[in-house]
Amino acid sequence: MPPPKDKNADKKYPTGLMWFRRDLRCFDNAALYHALKECRQLHCVFVFDREILDPLVDQGLTADRRVEFILASVAELDAALRALAQDSPAHGLIVRHAVAREAVPALAHELHAQAVFANHDYEPQAVQRDAMVRGALAHQGVSFVTFKDHVVFERDELLTQQGHAYGVFTPYKNAWLKKIDDFYLKPYPVARYAASLAPHPPAAHQALPTLPTLSTLSTLPTLPQLGFRPTNLGSLKIPTGASGGEQLFDEFFERMDRYDASRDFPAVKGPSYLGVHLRFGTVSVRQLAAVAHKLAAKGSDGAAVWLGELIWRDFYAQIIYHFPHAATAAFKSEYDAITWEHGKHAQALFAAWCEGRTGYPLVDAAMAQINQTGYMHNRLRMVVASFLVKDLGIDWRWGERYFAEHLNDFDLASNNGGWQWASSSGCDAQPYFRIFNPVSQSERFDPEGKFIRRYLPQLAGLSDSSIHAPWQASEIELLAAKVELGKTYPKPIVDHAEAREKTLARYAVVKKRQPLPRRA
Asked: What is the C-alpha separation between 2 and 4, in angstroms, rounded?
């Protein structure tokens, strides 16, 4: 009787290394699936990349909720990997606190790996980092094998009939919906190949001056080890890790049908709140899209609208990949000719915006939300961006940078796309003459002032009609509500009507290239 066939005999690589990045889960993970299938033994690593973290520390931005989120999610990932390997404590994550482009090739050499596996990252700096890693590995004779995982469609998978990247969303969305089928939404069966997870060699954590492996200590590195300090992440009760993503999606599933009607009202629990989980890959975008697509096909308007938001995410990812200049400059180059406010006056206006002191309650409440929680409702992101750019005349890049520093779910492609949309300089952006009125936006989307009262309690005593524009309230009402404009709450720092006219003049350098507004 012949001996049983060795399941590993036909595998391409004796030893491999899985590099986790924006994919902190061990289910439906493209790179992990292929790595387990192709390697007899697979080690797993996560790098706290000093090229990302050290600049934050140097700028004094050491209270970063995202670092805490990653720490908690990495701990859960380590436990999940060990559970996949039948709870063997020797299987889990190797952790490095180093420059990733140097640490990963060094670790591959240390482990005698023949291949490193990772999922694609589309941001310009990440593309450059991966190119350097690929070169360093090639010099060692090691393959660098990467896969699509962060989006449903990537790079050149959706192109126009002329073979170009889409620059307008609606045709992109139509192409996305036409192409999507079960193949693109099918999950990767990672657990089926978990036997390839390798125990760590005794010296695997000793060759570099780095943090030890989690499986060695069974504890995470501390925030001080990374140069950071605790935030209010715990008190905000933001669910972390893959379990947190699953919890939030289960909750959202119950209200997804109503998403189209509830998504624009910041005082209503309408959004999925999955942004940070999509950012760090603690959920699978394929699974989310599969559920939404299925419900939309059955006639759910809410699911169809939410699926559209996931398609926007794909759209912006392919924009930043094909047009990397948009990361630092206007997508439409003619908009770089605009002259923005500058000097001390601009700095004062920007500080008032950052600190929620504009005198426009919805804007100030939204800024209080991001400053206190690291989250901002999507409707409010549009409102405050429009206000900064088109009421205050501040360069959109200032606001983009502030969001990048403060948003838990910061994603370069989506953040950049949103800011360029608001400033009219991006692909498929709102027309330059579309300028949100912060008062009418407040009256429409927070009609009872519930959101404003939550974040600006000093205005809680005002009536529902007056809370949107306190400067228009009577002296008697202000007195009764204990609101003293200029003291307990600021007066408006600009007049919206006047600011609108200045913006139209500011955009005159490009308006000849834009369609003129139709008169009602």
From this structure: 7
